[in-house]
Amino acid sequence: MRAEGARIEVAGTPIWYRTTGVGDGPPLVLVHGSGANHWWWFEVVPWLEKHHRVVVVDLSGHGDSGHRDEYAIDLWVEEVTAVVDTLAEPVVLVGHSLGGKLSLLVAARRPEAVRAMALLDVPLTPESRIRPQTGFPAGPQRYVAGLDDLVARFRLSPAQPMPPEHVVRAVAEGSARATPEGWTWKYDRRGMPPLDDRLLNAAAGQMRCPALYVHGSESALVDEERLDHACEVLSPWLTVVKVDGAHHHLVLEEPQQCATLIHDFAATL
Fold it and tell me: Backbone dihedral region of 108: left (phi > 0), alpha (psi from -120 to 50 degrees) or beta?
C-alpha cells in the first residue's frame, strides 16, 4: 500500500489514486469513508488484486490528495468520476460509508460508467428521520511531537472495538504526516460538507445496476430501520449480506470476508 500512486487534477486540486492488480475480473474502484483514506483497504486489496484491477482513491481533504479552501459533495463526486474515467470501461464501485453514498451519486449521474456497486455499511436515511444538515464544524489541526504519540491517539468514529494492533498501526501511520509544527493527521479538519439525504435517496431510486449491500450486525449507523429503507429504495437490484459481529468499520475488522464478498459478487456480473 506504500507503492507510488498517480494524481489527477480535479477543480484545481490534485487527487491521489493508485491502480494495482492484473486479474481479468471487472475493475474495482474503492472509495473510503469520511475522515478515512485508502489505508482502510490495506488488507482488502491483496485479496482482490489477484483477480481484478483495483483502484484506491483519496478524496480531497483526505489521505494523500490535496486540500481545498472549501469542500462540496459535488466536488467529491467529480473526483471519483475522474478516477473512474481513467479506466476507460465500466467499473464496480466499492464504497464504505460516505464512499458508498458518493458511489450512488456517481452511478445516478454516469450510469454508463458504473457496472455494479458494492456498498459497505452505507446508512441511507428514511424520510421520517431526515433532519436539516449543516455539515460538521471545522476543528483545529492538532500537532504532536512524535509519530508514536499520534498513533496512540488514533480512534475510530463512530466508536467501536478497535481492530488488531497491526491494523491500527498501519492505518494510523498511513493517515499521518510530518510538518514543521509536528506530526498531524492528513485529514483536513475544516469540516465535512452537508449531504442532502433526499438527493441521496433519489439517486438510490434511479439505480439500474446490480448492488451488493454489506452491513455489520453491530453497526452504529445501519440499524434495522435504515436497513429496511435501503432494501426498499435499492430493490430489485440488491443483494444483502450481514456480517455477524462486525461494526461500522467492517473493512478493518473483517477484511478477508469483505474481499471475498466483493469478489464473489463481481464474478456474477
Answer: alpha
Please identify which residue in the block is written with the cell numbers 468520476: 81
Architecture of the domain spanning 6-140+191-267:
3-Layer(aba) Sandwich (3.40)
SS3 content of the chain, % helix, strand, coil (to 5): 35, 20, 45
The whole-model pTM stands at: 0.96
- Please name which of 199, 139, 151 lies closest in space to residue 175, comparing C-alpha atoms: 151
Taking the CB of residue 98, how many other CB atoms lie within 10 A of it? 22
Residue 178 carries which side chain, given as an amino acid letter? A
Q: In this structure, are residues 185 and 39 in contact, taking their beta carbons and an 8 Å threshold? A: no
DSSP state letters, 25-47: EEEEEEE--TT--GGGGTTTHHH
Tell the residue number behind the cell numbers 475488522, with chain if given.
253
- Residue 186: CB atoms within 10 A of its CB come to 17
β 13-20/176-179 pair status: unpaired
Alpha carbons 184 and 257: distance in angstroms, whole number: 32
196, 202 contact by CB (below 8 A) = no
Report residues of the chain scoring pLDDT below 50. Answer: none
Residue 24 backbone phi and psi in degrees, to 5: -100, 10
* Amino acid residing at 133: Q
pLDDT in tens, 66-93: 999 999 999 999 999 999 999 989 999 9
Domain boundaries, the chain: 6-140+191-267
The owner of cell 454489506 is 214
